[in-house]
Amino acid sequence: MKRTATLLAAALAACALVAPAIAQEYPSKPIRVVVPWPPGGLVDIAGRVLGEKLNAALGQPIIVENKPGAGGVIGADIVAKAAPDGYTLALTTSALTMNEALRPGKLPFDLYASFTPVVVAARAPSVVVVHPSSGIDTLQELIARAKAKPGGLTYASAGNGTPAHLSAELFKTRLGLDILHVPYKGAPPAMADQIAGRIDFHFANAAVALPQIRSGKVRALAVTSAERSDMFPNVPTMAQAGVADFEADQWIGYLAPAGTPQAIIARLVAEVNKALLLPDVRSTLEKNGMLADGRSTPQSFAAYLKQDHSRWTGVVKAANIKVD
């Protein structure tokens, strides 16, 4: 017994010495950041902007690899199965929690057991938009028209199970509205038909909506962020527009494989948050429809993942959404 106790004490002491050593030596080679989306999109832009800053801060190349497919599942799975050494990370979005809600128990990984939350980098609000000729100037006018014409209005999305789809279903179930869903193959074609007046409204992501709002091709009624966005200073939040407790931003955040040493996670959190406070980073993200965070922790991110998953699970069940 004494020998066992001595060996255990020695092992614990060794572990206490290893953690600082890992943090001090990390990183000693390039870091791979898997973006489960195509080049040029929101997440890719964030990954490359932050990658430049992390390269300078950590002294190692940050290699962004685009692995799109299956709504972000393919890229996330690569990271879930990678070595937990801090050299393979995912930069992904709310699509992860939405997929878990849509396909419980059917994903090739476990949302909670397969990943270690690192840090939220940014949030991407959506904007409720209508055609300028619609005669609708406020969110309350849109709600009134939907109530007056059950099943008579249409909303667009970038496809079944996408943030635009689930955000609109949250809106419908919260207010008891009957509105027809028209799914498209991506956000650009959905916006094209919105501009053409072929659909009544949709929850457009800020990056796609911003130039169209500025050019007057669509009218913004509300943003889904908790506070007004500097991108749309004259557009009210959903709460200000009369729909309380409605937030449907996409989070964009870093995840590591489960079991990644906490010392490495702490180093990454510190450097990412430091980069997110830089004016040029914040400006670039905002120009591309994202709001930089800079205050996130692994603990707050983990709590938000559970909250987000719970919210979308509720929406999926209430709206009886089926994607398979």
Task: Please describe what this structure looks like.
This protein has 324 residues and is an alpha/beta fold. It has two domains: 167 residues, D-Maltodextrin-Binding Protein, domain 2 (3-Layer(aba) Sandwich), CATH 3.40.190; 98 residues, Periplasmic binding protein-like II (D-Maltodextrin-Binding Protein, domain 2), CATH 3.40.190.10. 45% of the residues lie in helices and 18% in strands. The chain contains eleven helices and eleven strands. The protein has a six-stranded mixed sheet, sandwiched between helices. A five-stranded mixed sheet has the order 7-6-8-5-9. Helix 1 packs parallel to helix 9, helix 2 crosses helix 9 and helix 4 packs across helix 11. The model has no long low-confidence stretch (mean pLDDT 91).
% residues in beta strands: 15-25%
| Unreliable spans | none
Indicate the CATH topology of the largest domain.
Answer: D-Maltodextrin-Binding Protein, domain 2
Main sheet?
6 strands, mixed
How many separate domains? Answer: 2
Helix content: 40-55%
Name the overall outline: globular
How many helix segments?
Answer: 11
Strand tally is 11
Strand order of the largest sheet: 2-1-3-10-4-11
Computed structural class: alpha/beta
Which superfamily, in CATH terms, is the homologous superfamily of the largest domain? Answer: Bordetella uptake gene, domain 1
The second-level CATH architecture of the largest domain is: 3-Layer(aba) Sandwich
What radius of gyration results from the CA coordinates? 22 Å
- The termini sit apart by 56 Å
SSE succession = HEHEHEHEEHEHEHEHEEHHEH
